[in-house]
Each structure stands twice: as structure tokens, then as C-alpha cells.
Amino acid sequence: MTINILGQEYDIRETDAKKDTHLADCDGYCDGYGKIVRINNDYNENHPDSISDFQSYKKRIMRHEIIHAFFEESGLKKYQTDELIVEWIANQFPKLEKIFKQAGAL
Question: 54 or 25: which carries more pLDDT confidence?
Fold first, then answer.
């Protein structure tokens, strides 16, 4: 899938660490130079760290990586690598969207 982030096309794909070694130590990443977002879809429900709702988790990871891309494309590179603020926005966005809709702010 391709999405447009502030005028730049980003290729978003789900893959696994066997095909993309960048995913060996993470659940996803954003490459601002290559304009790509990758989400790790290597899921093993028998793994001790498995997540009960993997689909929701993948959506959160995708939001997280897209936020990185927005910071990259908006010229806010200082924040592009700030995991705390990126994670906060990714986690709070569904709540923000709900409130914005309720308030008629969208």
C-alpha cells in the first residue's frame, strides 16, 4: 500500500524479520530516506510475549511509524526520533479523533 504523507509517497508493507533484517529487533520502522514503513507480521501465538489482540497491536505500530514519517516530512527531525512523543501521539490518536468528532472539530 502507498500513502501520501505531506506530499511524499510512502510504501507501507507488512513483512517479517526473515525477509527484512531491520525487523529483527523491532515491531516496525520508518525509513524517511527510503520513504518506507515496515510492520513486523511475524506472530507466534505460542510465544511467551504474544499479544492477545495482534491485529489491534499492528494498527498501533502502524500509527506509531506513520507519526515518525509525519515528523520527518514536516521538517521536525528533532521529534522524528523522540520515541516518547511519537508513542504518546500514536496511543492517544484514537481518543483524540473521537473527541474531535464529538466536538465537531474535524
Answer: 25
